Amino acid sequence: MSRPLRFALVTSAFLISLCAAANSSVSVQPASFNFGKQYLNKEYLSVTINITDTGTGSAYLQSLTITGPFQWRAGLVPQRIAPGAATRLAVRFWPTAPGPASGNLVLNFKYGLPSITIPLSGTGVTTTAGISYSTPEVVFSNQTVGSAASQSLTLTNPGKASLSVSQALVTPATFSVTGQSFPFTLDRKSVV
């Protein structure tokens, strides 16, 4: 885009006006970005969007808009970008639903420089629960008929989601589970 620059030279006899054109243009990297697979509602690192003024005049980044499950994380808006200079914006993917997601980062400039749209995409992935045991088997020593003995078993959920435990099946019937009622929920990173 051209904007006239006006210079005036005043002499005792007459006024001379000069006009020079300054052109603004920008390049943006990356032109699009796919964040890949990310777990729902989990914070990941942002991607950096580099905006470089490749023209002979300053570019004025006036505003930005973001659509979809993407968020602006850092960078100044509005701002002036001098010729040959660059600025950075940071954007992250924040999926709230499983499956593919898409949106746009739209950079809006002043003085007739066209807006630039950067397509963004990613896939929201549900977290998984897991279960681990304190021991792979519970071993009882010899017991007198009619007596009782107990052993402890610790369950841990090392996963990234809650785990619902509806029942415990123990065989043969001479064994039973005590000290825990069913069903129960084992939250992520919790122990029972």
Describe this structure in words.
This protein is an all-beta fold. The chain has two domains: 26-125, Immunoglobulins (Immunoglobulin-like, Sandwich); 128-137 and 151-192, no CATH class. The chain contains no helices and 15 strands. The strands form five sheets. The protein has a five-stranded mixed β-sheet with strand order 4-11-10-6-8, with no helix packed on it. Strands 3-5-9-7 form a four-stranded antiparallel β-sheet, with no helix packed on it.
Short key terms for the protein model shown above:
four-stranded antiparallel β-sheet; rod-shaped; 47% strand; 192 residues; Immunoglobulin-like; mainly beta; five-stranded mixed β-sheet
CATH architecture call of the largest domain: Sandwich
Identify the CATH homologous superfamily of the largest domain.
Immunoglobulins
**How many structural domains?**
2
CATH class of the largest domain: Mainly Beta
Largest sheet: spatial strand order: 4-11-10-6-8
Structural class: mainly beta
What's the number of extended β-strand segments? 15
Largest sheet: 5 strands, mixed
